[in-house]
Amino acid sequence: SFAGFSTAAALELKDPRVKAGIMHCPSIAMSGGGVLPTSSRANLETPILMMTGKEDTVIGTAGNEACRQYYDTHEGPKTFVEINLGGHVSFTSCELYNPNYGNGIGESNSLTDPGTTYTPTPISEQHGIINHYTLAFLDSALKSSLNEDSSVDASRAAAFAALQENPFGDVITHLSRL
Q: Which Gene3D superfamilies match (predicted)?
């Protein structure tokens, strides 16, 4: 959440060395004066990957909506992935010390149906989703097509294709415009 906010804040500096930004459940609704989710932010062009958990009780409904607004107002290459039965802790390895941690790992309180609990998508599957899109995003945004080695171009093209597809069905909500 704070690392995701830090990524969004760093993108605002428009440092040409920063080629891409990945945000996992960023706290952009509650940090930085709330300007980051809007189109009035300074950087609308650098490629971004926005990932959230629909049941995230840490950033909550307002936080998830801010993440969608950030994605919607972004004009550059962008991908949005929301794990429908995932939470804030889906993007960690907390299951290594507590398989019932909650908020995306083990039985968890529901954000979308208050007063109830839900069983998250198995954490190994959630991590597979996160890794699939994160690797594809980094390959698409950072691999140079300036090399004479055509395998780099082929690998980058495969990464773009992977960002456009949804092999996970209704386990996720997926949007992409590259």
A: alpha/beta hydrolase
